[in-house]
Design goal:
100 residues; mainly alpha; Hyaluronidase domain-like; 63% helix; globular
Length: 100
């Protein structure tokens, strides 16, 4: 995801740039999670959620719901429900970003 969104993020200015940064962070967080780096994933999930929900930017996507799901996954890591990539089946799935 990073390779796809970074050029768009670099060219963007204003609130949309922050949301795009959050989406990039979400992708990095999920990569860390699949590699078993729970501490890295948890921090990036929380940061990504803040970036995605921070700005009221109309991208035609439900970024609020996506931010809540990212935070929920970070909470599942904190609670010990997700201890590694094999536990992801027990976590709530992160839905695809949908048009509002």
């Amino acid at each position: 995801m990073h390779e796809i969104l970074e050029p768009v993020w670099l060219a963007e200015r204003g609130p949309r740039r922050d949301v795009l940064q959050g989406l990039i962070m979400a992708g990095a967080a999920l990569h860390h999670l699949t590699q078993g780096n729970l501490a890295g994933a948890r921090g990036l999930l929380r940061d990504a959620a803040r970036h995605v929900e921070r700005e009221a930017v109309d991208l035609g996507l439900d970024t609020g719901a996506f931010a809540r799901e990212l935070a929920s996954l970070a909470d599942a890591i904190d609670a010990g429900a997700v201890r590694g990539p094999g536990d992801l089946g027990a976590a709530a799935p992160i839905p695809r970003l949908r048009h509002k």
